[in-house]
Amino acid sequence: MSAEQPMIADLFEVDKRLTLKPVVDFNSYLRNAFGEGPCSCHRCAEGSDQSSYSHAHTFTFEGRQWHRRFASTAGSDVAQVLKKAWLSYTKADLSLVGALDFTTLKTFTEPALRERLLVLLPASGLAREIDGQWVLQAQAD
Ligand SMILES: [Zn+2]
Fold first, then answer.
1. Contacts of 88 (CB under 8 A, 6+ apart)
2. If you measure from the C-alpha of residue 41 to the centroid of ligand 1, how many angstroms do you get, rounded to a whole number?
3. What's the CA-to-centroid distance between 93 and ligand 1, angstroms?
4. Is residue 36 helix, strand or coil?
5. Which of 21, 50, 135, 137 is least surrounded by CB atoms within 10 angstroms?
6. If you measure from the C-alpha of residue 96 to the centroid of ligand 1, how many angstroms do you get, rounded to a whole number?
7. By residue range, what is the domain housing residue 51?
8. Total domain count for the chain?
């Protein structure tokens, strides 16, 4: 075995922390947070004007319409999976008050799922973007 081989292997080594179960769970949670098609809840089915909602129900991304799965995406639900992934990836507790380190959050969110993350954070009421800074909002649970 030549001495060069381990160096080449290092070059292609991916961030192993991305394979930690809570991080994988967080990404699959994001993937499943939305269902295809517009929202069909009672309110939407009646044709309510969505601009009057405090949180949107139907979203457009990836060139299609999606609805948020309410049963599993309350702010406290998102907070819970995010906290677990954050702890296992960064080895530090995520404070659910104040500014959210979005740069760190992005490092363990699969690129293909970042659009969902950007939609889910405000839609669930967990965080909102204020002047380019993500700020976590207190969860009542
Ligand atoms: Zn709806």
1. 17, 20, 21, 22, 23
2. 4
3. 34
4. strand
5. 21
6. 27
7. 16-136
8. 1
